[in-house]
């Protein structure tokens, strides 16, 4: 199936990606091609098949409810592009 | 149609923070009120390469709650990712349970003016909390600050069916649910700190209709009062919309505390598409029969059952029973005291009266009480015997409350004991009657009003310590009644 | 005369044990070799000379004191830049993580440090491991030491090239759809993709969480086995880490293939395979037969659906895994962003390369409202069919043999503008990831032009020891690993 530019823009918005007009064009073409390729899956009848979401079904690992040391804030924020005190700073969030 | 021709329909979504030491997927503390990002690690900061590992206690608490609400506890439930971008959501997705929650289909019984009502609980699921975005002064203009201490704090979401029909029912449901969670020891029931939060789905439909109207989700309801006000405002708003020929849009609305109105939160154009899918980093959650059984065995008696038992076992009125059982420590203390007090109703009066007054005024938690059930029993017996008057008894309780000293010592020290020695009282009575022969004549002639005068005189002579019962008894005898 | 860097890990370990060579000498030799050839190969994103030499000195002190931490104590190693290294920049081949210095070590990195191996640096890779040629690296493409005009494969191309060019004695890579095995095949090296859950993913930057698996890359099967045993440990920090014993892969390594039943899947010998690759594989199969193995013709009927299934599932998971790169807590933040929304879109728009964006777009679309069932859910169901194919076949055979890649190393730039044909490079390797099985690539010859060819072995879950044993039986008949790349 062919992806329209509107669909490409909508997906880019969901994914928070700014795309140039050229990129929009390119992805419309390339993603359409990929979607055509994956369309072959439709030829299989999977109505009776259970989905696989995990490669192994080892039972879930649990941890005891015990405290482990947190990172010193200076380490946790060492890579922050912008901070105020020990908080991360971002452009104002408008409700 | 006027408002009265419409039926309000309400369902509640409650977010309860589970009382664990550490977060749901890492070992950071869940304690409230630390400096920004002081309770964070690579996992809850959403650093590259980190993986979640589930906190066992979170599962135990969810199972316990599910059993208490009569839910089906699923032997297998599934973790999903809810994808959206927000600065307080470090990974760009929230780990939650979506189409396969840990518990389904329970119920909660509440009291309404028209009697008991059963509210269906559709599901209970587990998820991680997000962080906090601060917009206050500490941030310079045009800036918001992000604190991830709360990110990864374990939440249990309890979703009711739309079975509630007015704001009062909603408030009652929320109160009863909170009492249950606090009884279970899984939540602290603190609405102000946000560890017990509630969103309300509200819609209206013409009375008698069976099809629900379009609903709105109300947020920021951090007190029982706001919940009531917000629901009532919103119901009226929706009726106005319909009455003026409009249609209600499904949307999220924020309760504006200052203006006392609900206002639309999100604009339509960024309608959300959360792209849920199974969390590949966590295997499906398996709940063993062993865990289910151990939690069932450890279930405490719940408020409603306790209330019924108090009415039966102690012959208390519903009103007393409800107050006494609202909180587990109070109920436990009452039962401890009841062992030492034959008349449970009298004991209840002391609890509802003097004791609760003292607790409120002194702001002392029950756990910190200085006197023992036995001491309280002794005090009440003394009052019963008439050794001290009821009023004096209150002073004694106050003193016990503050010092924890023996009631007997306090009575002795303060000289609060009443004279109940027949000889002693009789002597005074005879003396008074002899001194007031004239009045006695009038009395015998039918002027009963002077009786009070005799009582007053005797009590005065005894400096108020005469046992009132005995004084009356002897006076009447001597006056030939 | 062969220089220090030509030694295998086990040969070097023996000389370290006998104190004939010191770890500092070996590490210096490694660093010198890097200085000498890496300007041409470009395998390294960053070299940690000081850190490596410090670790080497500590290792020598332990050897001196007769208390080495492991058999490989002192053997210098390289790491794909997908592994978090505390205090050493880790970018995953992406601009969006440029300058990111992790506050913690990946579990496998900790295990290597605890075993005493000096880590000489971080190796180039396709951005976020999305690629089969190392050309999607945001920094520069790595060149194949066997022909500098060609790709070393991907996404662990830097690791493979560094090992093949004798810059390091071994390396760690990761494999989501063939990213260890295909570069190994392109560079005459051995690469093992362990069973899903065998090696911890904690601290390994996620591409597709249900498929990713770290593994060893080395010049010999024995080195690969020794390195594998160091990192195959249950990890309480990874919920998907299997709680199984660390295998002993060295004891039975020389036991040969006599009596083993090897499945040859007809779907893997289909059209589109390079004739030289096909010929070399046929010859290798006959050799295995001569060595006592029984070849069994088997069928994996759903193979042709693996590619589509893989790209839907891996891209969907990736679109979510890469959501955390938002310019708020670490990594790139767009300078000129006006407001929060732009901070997100511009940071991600500028920070991600073409391939990463393409997969994020595909995955976001496959998960979005109205398409989930048609794409993601259907792919998960087909994944089940592909797993069942293998389960059936492994009732008849002990292992599966196939080519690792349908073609030898291709020219740099040949496929960059044609994602689909690039994706086709992985047809033989990615079914194994979908099934969570162990897979290994071992050198099995060269083309006329002297390009390496790899043979792939697939096994039952947690049966890595058997794959290594088969590979070793084959390796023993050749001296491929003695042949050094002409760089």
What does this structure look like?
The complex is a heterotrimer of chains A (95), B (481) and C (487). Helices cover 34% and strands 9% of the residues of chain A. Chain A contains 3 helices and 3 strands; from the N terminus they run H-H-E-H-E-E. Chain A has a two-stranded antiparallel sheet with strand order 2-3. In chain A, helix 1 (5-14) packs across helix 2. Helices cover 39% and strands 20% of the residues of chain B. By secondary structure, chain B is α+β, with helices and mostly antiparallel strands. In chain B, helix 9 (373-385) runs antiparallel to helix 10. Chain C has a domain at 4-258: Amidase signature (AS) enzymes, CATH 3.90.1300.10. In chain C, 37% of the residues lie in helices and 12% in strands. Chain C is built from 15 helices and 11 strands. Chain C has helices at residues 9-17, 23-41, 49-64, 107-114, 157-164, 181-186, 221-231, 275-290, 306-321, 339-351, 354-367, 373-393, 419-423, 430-435, 464-475; strands at 44-47, 77-80, 119-123, 170-174, 190-193, 214-218, 261-265, 294-298, 399-403, 439-446, 452-459. In chain C, strands 1-3-2-4-6-5-10-11-9-7-8 form an 11-stranded mixed sheet, sandwiched between helices. The mean pLDDT of chain C is 95. Classes of the chains: A alpha+beta (95), B alpha+beta (481), C alpha/beta (487). Chains in contact: A-B, A-C, B-C. At the A-C interface, helix 1, helix 2 and strand 3 of A face helix 9, helix 10, helix 11, helix 12 and helix 14 of C.
Helix/strand layout:
The complex is a heterotrimer of chains A (95), B (481) and C (487).
Chain A: H1 5-14, H2 21-38, E1 62-63, H3 73-76, E2 83-84, E3 87-91
Antiparallel strand pairs in A: 2-3
Helix pairs in contact in A: 1-2
Chain B: E1 6-17, E2 54-55, H1 56-68, E3 72-73, E4 76-77, E5 79-83, E6 93-97, E7 103-112, E8 115-128, E9 132-134, E10 143-147, E11 154-160, H2 167-184, E12 196-206, E13 216-219, H3 224-243, E14 252-256, E15 261-264, E16 277-278, E17 285-286, H4 289-297, H5 303-314, H6 318-325, H7 328-338, H8 344-362, H9 373-385, H10 390-403, H11 407-414, H12 422-435, H13 437-444, H14 451-461, H15 468-478
Parallel strand pairs in B: 13-14
Antiparallel strand pairs in B: 1-11, 1-12, 3-7, 4-17, 5-6, 5-16, 7-8, 8-11, 9-10, 12-13, 14-15
Helix pairs in contact in B: 1-4, 2-3, 5-6, 7-9, 9-10, 12-14, 12-15, 14-15
Chain C: H1 9-17, H2 23-41, E1 44-47, H3 49-64, E2 77-80, H4 107-114, E3 119-123, H5 157-164, E4 170-174, H6 181-186, E5 190-193, E6 214-218, H7 221-231, E7 261-265, H8 275-290, E8 294-298, H9 306-321, H10 339-351, H11 354-367, H12 373-393, E9 399-403, H13 419-423, H14 430-435, E10 439-446, E11 452-459, H15 464-475
């Amino acid at each position: 199936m062919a992806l329209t530019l509107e669909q490409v823009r909508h997906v880019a918005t969901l994914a928070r990606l700014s795309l140039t007009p050229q990129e929009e064009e390119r992805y419309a073409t390339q993603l359409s091609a990929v979607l055509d390729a994956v369309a072959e899956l439709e030829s299989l009848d999977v109505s009776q098949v259970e989905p696989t979401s995990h490669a192994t079904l080892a039972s879930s690992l649990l941890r005891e409810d015990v405290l482990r040391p947190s990172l010193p804030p200076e380490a946790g924020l060492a890579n922050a592009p912008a901070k105020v005190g020990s908080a991360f700073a971002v452009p104002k969030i408008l409700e | 149609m006027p408002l009265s021709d419409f039926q309000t329909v309400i369902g509640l979504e409650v977010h309860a923070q589970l009382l664990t030491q550490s977060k749901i997927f890492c070992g950071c503390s869940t304690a409230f009120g630390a400096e920004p990002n002081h309770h964070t690690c690579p996992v809850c900061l959403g650093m590259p390469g980190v993986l979640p590992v589930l906190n066992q206690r979170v599962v135990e608490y969810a199972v316990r709650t599910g059993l208490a609400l009569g839910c089906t506890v699923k032997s297998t439930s599934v973790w999903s990712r809810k994808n959206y971008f927000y600065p307080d959501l470090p990974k760009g997705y929230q780990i939650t349970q979506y189409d396969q929650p840990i518990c389904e289909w329970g119920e909660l019984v509440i009291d309404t003016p028209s009697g008991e009502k059963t509210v269906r609980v559709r599901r209970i699921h587990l998820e991680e909390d997000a962080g906090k975005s601060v917009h206050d002064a500490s941030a310079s203009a045009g800036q918001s600050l992000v604190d991830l201490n709360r990110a990864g704090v374990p939440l249990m979401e309890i979703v009711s069916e739309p079975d509630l029909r007015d704001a009062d029912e909603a408030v009652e449901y929320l109160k009863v649910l909170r009492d249950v969670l606090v009884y279970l020891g899984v939540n602290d029931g603190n609405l102000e700190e946000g560890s017990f939060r509630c969103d309300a789905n509200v819609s209206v439909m013409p009375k008698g209709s069976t099809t629900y109207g379009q609903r709105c989700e109300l947020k920021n309801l951090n007190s029982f009062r706001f919940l009531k006000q917000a629901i009532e405002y919103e119901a009226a708003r929706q009726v106005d919309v319909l009455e003026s020929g409009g249609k209600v849009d499904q949307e999220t609305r924020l309760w504006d505390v200052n203006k006392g109105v609900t206002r639309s939160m999100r604009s339509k154009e960024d309608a959300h598409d959360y792209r849920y899918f199974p969390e590949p980093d966590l295997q499906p959650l398996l709940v063993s029969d062993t865990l289910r059984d151990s939690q069932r065995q450890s279930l405490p008696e719940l408020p409603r059952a306790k209330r019924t038992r108090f009415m039966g076992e102690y012959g208390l009125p519903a009103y007393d029973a409800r107050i006494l059982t609202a909180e587990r420590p109070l109920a436990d203390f009452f039962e401890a005291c009841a062992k030492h007090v034959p008349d449970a109703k009298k004991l209840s009066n002391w609890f509802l009266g003097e004791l609760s007054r003292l607790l409120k005024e002194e702001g002392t938690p029950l756990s910190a009480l200085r006197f023992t059930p036995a001491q309280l029993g002794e005090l009440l017996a003394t009052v019963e015997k008439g050794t001290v008057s009821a009023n004096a008894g209150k002073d004694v309780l106050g003193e016990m409350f503050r010092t924890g000293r023996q009631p007997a010592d306090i009575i002795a020290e303060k000289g609060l004991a009443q004279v109940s020695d027949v000889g002693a009282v009789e002597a005074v009575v005879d003396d008074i009657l002899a001194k007031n022969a004239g009045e006695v004549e009038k009395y015998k002639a039918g002027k009963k009003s002077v009786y009070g005068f005799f009582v007053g005189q005797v009590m005065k002579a005894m400096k108020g310590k005469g046992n009132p019962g005995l004084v009356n008894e002897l006076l009447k005898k001597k006056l030939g009644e | 005369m062969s220089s220090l860097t030509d030694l295998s890990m086990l040969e070097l370990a023996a000389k370290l044990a006998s104190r004939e060579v010191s770890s500092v000498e070996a590490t210096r030799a490694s660093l010198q070799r890097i200085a000498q050839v890496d300007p041409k190969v470009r395998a390294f994103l960053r070299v940690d000379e000081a850190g490596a030499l410090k670790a080497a000195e500590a290792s020598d002190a332990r050897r001196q004191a007769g208390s080495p931490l492991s058999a490989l104590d002192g053997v210098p190693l390289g790491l794909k830049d997908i592994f978090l290294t505390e205090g050493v920049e880790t970018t995953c081949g992406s601009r969006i993580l440029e300058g990111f210095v992790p506050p913690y070590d990946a579990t496998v990195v900790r295990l290597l440090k605890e075993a005493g191996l000096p880590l000489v640096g971080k190796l180039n890779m396709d951005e976020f491991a999305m690629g089969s040629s190392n050309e999607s690296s945001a920094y520069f493409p790595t060149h194949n030491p066997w022909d500098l005009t060609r790709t070393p494969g991907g996404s662990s191309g830097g690791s493979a090239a560094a090992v093949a060019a004798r810059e390091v004695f071994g390396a760690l890579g990761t494999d989501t759809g063939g990213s260890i095995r295909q570069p190994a095949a392109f560079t005459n090296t051995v690469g093992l993709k362990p069973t899903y859950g065998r090696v911890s993913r904690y601290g390994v930057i996620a591409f597709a969480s249900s498929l990713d698996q770290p593994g060893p890359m080395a010049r010999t099967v024995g080195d690969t086995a020794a390195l594998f045993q160091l990192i195959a440990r249950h990890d309480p920090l990874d919920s998907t880490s299997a709680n199984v014993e660390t295998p002993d892969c060295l004891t039975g390594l020389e036991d040969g293939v006599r009596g083993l039943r090897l499945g040859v899947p007809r779907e893997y010998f289909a059209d589109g395979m390079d004739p030289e690759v096909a010929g070399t594989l046929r010859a290798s199969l006959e050799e295995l037969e001569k060595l006592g193995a029984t070849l069994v013709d088997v069928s994996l009927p759903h193979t042709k659906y693996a590619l589509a299934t893989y790209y839907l599932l891996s891209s969907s998971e990736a679109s979510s895994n890469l959501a955390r790169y938002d310019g708020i807590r670490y990594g790139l933040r767009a300078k000129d962003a006006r407001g929060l929304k732009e901070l997100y879109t511009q940071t991600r728009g500028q920070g991600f390369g073409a391939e990463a964006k393409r997969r994020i777009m595909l995955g976001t679309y496959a998960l979005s409202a109205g398409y989930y069932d048609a794409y993601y859910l259907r792919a998960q169901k087909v994944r089940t069919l592909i797993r069942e194919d293998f389960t059936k076949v492994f009732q008849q055979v002990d292992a599966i043999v196939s080519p690792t890649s349908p073609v030898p190393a291709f020219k740099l730039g040949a496929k960059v503008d044609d994602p689909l044909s690039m994706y086709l490079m992985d047809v033989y390797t990615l079914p194994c990831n979908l099934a969570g099985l162990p897979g290994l690539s071992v050198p099995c010859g060269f083309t006329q032009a002297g390009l390496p060819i790899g043979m792939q072995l697939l096994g039952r879950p947690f049966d890595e020891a058997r794959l290594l044993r088969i590979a070793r039986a084959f390796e023993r008949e050749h001296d491929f690993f003695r042949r050094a790349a002409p760089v």
